[in-house]
Write a structure and sequence with these properties.
heterodimer, A: 319 residues, MetI-like fold, 13 helices, B: 371 residues, alpha/beta, Rossmann fold, 2 domains, six-stranded mixed β-sheet
């Protein structure tokens, strides 16, 4: 190989043929080191996630199907219009009729837990990031990496650190679904018009008051859009996460594909689609300002308003 | 300031001036990374705006502005867009930090204050009204008006009561539950005014409050504001690009051009003695009838006797030094005499001849004509 000028030139012109950084070996070693020394830390992280997930799932699974539909009807009535409510109810009926109810409830519990922890961490992170351009510059590539790294790449390390099951599934889901919430929180806060902030300063507001009385309320609609995005991404990730033994509709799809059982895969797929559309419409309606729907406050309509009216009437009668 | 006192024709001694609520001393604002260099160069070489931009890449906001606003006075700063007037007013509550110079609020330098002290001053001593209203879209009108009180953690009941009172003063008592976007522009600006008044500050900063409104509403609000400010005796710094508005509203006017305060004076001084061609150009179209007073067009009694020997002022109509040309015309039209004697505290202090009155309306110097 190393004979004559031509070969030397070839080496000089293609240096990467000779010199390769052993990145893969480093990562292997890093992971092994983490697993050996810090597994306890990751196991500790499991606990709160596990606790929330188990409880939400227990509640969802224990509610009878018809009661669940009544709850969905009330929620739909409160936050959205009649068409959306009807769509949600029909979707639930279809999911029940094709025999995917229990799996759907598991998936719902997973999604709710994932979104819960996303909001719990993403909202404060977004607020902190919005306050400093430096931090934003540092965090942005991390968010990019979280969103673009193929999920299969971190599925295995997550299993090594957290084990298999629903909880690591949620960790993976959070990794994937968190960035849009942070991004949109930052965007929403940056979009608050400066003249309103200036006015608040002129009347003697503190930094904290500016954040909580001006910026966050005015960014709320964008933040709600972020929560909606997080929810959608969670739902899609929960399916991929079925590869590390996460239950629910995704598991149905995976098992169906594995056994070439197109029927079962289709049932799971249908359930996911119906659930995605239902949750999307409901959360989008929540993000809408109540005044666009003809009332000043959210409690001036729907079942809550009925209860208030009934209560006022009762109080009026007894007085 | 001396002219201010002359206009109040009280016979007793003038009131003690005391500490002015607002005072700016040699205030400079230059934007850009090399602001200190630019400042030194401007002080030394008398550069203009374009030269500073070219040499230092800095924008000039305010150039060596000094003025003080007296208790209860309405002080107008008038200039075209880009003249730095909005920048200047934002120094008064330190929304902008100056490059050099100081701002004293009731004698205290606010640029030396901690953020906490500054906040106290902003929330209790200074109210501000903005050109674009800047109402909070997520709060209803009453909550908007009560905002400065909310920031001070005053109880809900108390601040609703105060807000309601403030809304009554701007005739919007019925609108507390509405949201800003449900109100017309004029009403929104009245909410803005109520918000500034709610904390009962001694100082009002008004940054082109009526500029975005149509002429009819603007005039109504000007009248309403004048009525209010007479009642409440607030010290007001009023920014406008409209000379008519400045003259209608201001006790004194400062004309601003390219960051420089070109002239400060009463409306009468500015109209009768413009400092330079720029100001003269501005005031050319302004009617003098309500701006020029007897004291400006009258001649002293000795001068009158010298030029009109043997003319008796008996039976001539009388007026006061603070009567404007409009009033003098009415008097002159209603008499067959050629002279009005100007009386102050029972003494004749001057005479307005028919010729002097006509010259006064014209805006020409009277002395050289020998009328």
């Amino acid at each position: 190989m190393l004979e004559g000028d031509a070969t030397i030139w070839q080496i000089l012109l293609n240096p990467f043929e000779l010199f390769v950084i052993p990145f893969n070996i480093w990562m292997d070693e890093l992971l092994s080191w983490l697993v050996e020394n810090y597994r306890w830390f990751f196991q500790l992280l499991r606990m709160p996630v596990d606790y929330v997930l188990v409880n939400i799932e227990r509640v969802l699974q224990s509610i009878p199907q018809l009661v669940m539909m009544v709850i969905a009807w009330l929620v739909g009535w409160q936050v959205s219009d009649r068409r959306t409510t009807l769509f949600v109810l029909i979707s639930m009926a279809v999911i029940g009729l094709v025999g995917a109810w229990a799996e759907a409830m598991t998936t719902l519990a997973l999604v709710i837990t994932a979104v819960f922890f996303c909001v719990l961490t993403g909202l404060p992170l977004g607020i902190i990031i919005s306050r400093s351009e430096k931090i934003e510059k540092l965090v942005r590539p991390v968010l990019d990496a979280m969103q673009t790294t193929p999920s299969f790449v971190y599925l295995i390390p997550v299993v090594m650190l957290f084990g298999v099951g629903n909880v690591p599934g949620i960790i993976v889901t959070i990794t994937f679904a968190l960035p849009p919430l942070i991004r949109l929180t930052v965007l929403g806060i940056h979009q608050v018009p400066y003249d309103v902030i200036e006015a608040a300063y002129a009347f003697g507001a503190t930094e904290k008051q500016i954040m909580f009385k001006i910026k966050i309320p005015l960014a709320l609609r964008t933040i709600m859009a972020g929560i909606n995005q997080t929810l959608m991404l969670s739902l899609s990730m929960v399916v991929v996460a079925s590869m590390i033994a996460v239950g629910g509709l995704g598991q149905m799809v995976l098992r169906g594909i594995g056994r070439l059982d197109v029927g079962q895969a289709a049932v799971g797929g249908l359930g996911i689609v119906l659930m995605a559309i239902s949750l999307d419409r409901l959360t989008q309606a929540m993000g809408q300002a109540p005044r666009l729907r003809g009332t000043r406050h959210w409690y001036e309509r729907g079942p809550v308003f009925m209860v208030i009216k009934w209560w006022r009437k009762k109080k009026g009668l007894t007085e | 300031m001396s002219v201010m006192k002359e206009r109040e024709t009280t016979c007793g001694p003038p009131p003690e001036p005391g500490i002015p609520p607002i005072e700016c001393r040699n205030l400079w604002k230059i934007y850009g990374a090399r602001d200190q260099e630019a400042l030194a160069a401007m002080k030394k070489e008398n550069l203009n705006k374009e030269q500073v931009l070219e040499r230092f890449g800095c924008g000039v906001g305010v150039v060596d502005a000094s003025f003080s606003v007296n208790q209860g006075e309405i002080f107008c700063i008038m200039g075209l867009s880009g003249s730095g007037k909005s920048t200047l007013v934002r120094h008064v509550n330190r929304l902008i930090d100056p490059t050099a110079g100081s701002v004293l609020i009731e004698g205290q330098d606010i640029n030396q204050m901690s953020f906490e002290q500054l906040r106290q001053v902003r929330s209790q001593k200074i109210g501000m009204v903005f050109q674009n209203m800047a109402l909070l879209p997520h709060k209803n009108v009453r909550q908007n008006v009560a905002f400065s009180l909310e920031l001070r953690h005053i109880s809900r009941e108390e601040r609703n009561r105060v807000a309601q009172k403030a809304l009554e003063t701007v005739h919007l008592a019925e609108w507390g539950e509405s949201y800003p976007d449900e109100l017309s522009g004029g009403m929104q600006q009245r909410v803005g005014l109520a918000r500034a008044l709610a904390a009962d500050p001694g100082i009002l900063l008004m940054d082109e409050p009526f500029s975005a409104l149509d002429p009819l509403i603007r005039r109504q609000l000007q009248d309403q504001f004048l009525e209010l400010s007479e009642k409440m005796n607030k010290t007001t710094l009023f920014i406008t690009h409209d000379l008519d508005e400045a003259i209608r509203i201001g006790n004194r006017i400062a004309i601003m051009k390219d960051g420089v305060l070109v002239q400060i004076g009463t409306p009468e001084e500015i109209v009768t003695h413009p400092a330079d061609a720029y100001v003269a150009d501005f005031v050319a179209g302004i009617s003098r009838l309500h701006l020029v007073y007897a004291q400006t067009v009258m001649k002293g009694p000795e001068y009158f006797e010298k030029n009109h020997p043997g003319v008796s002022l008996e039976n001539c109509p009388e007026s006061t030094p603070d009567a404007d040309l409009d009033t003098l015309i009415d008097i002159m039209v209603g008499t067959d005499k050629k002279y009005i004697s100007i009386m102050d505290c029972g003494q004749c202090v001057g005479v307005v001849t028919r010729g002097a009155l006509l010259r006064g309306i014209q805006g020409k110097e009277t002395s050289i004509e020998g009328v």
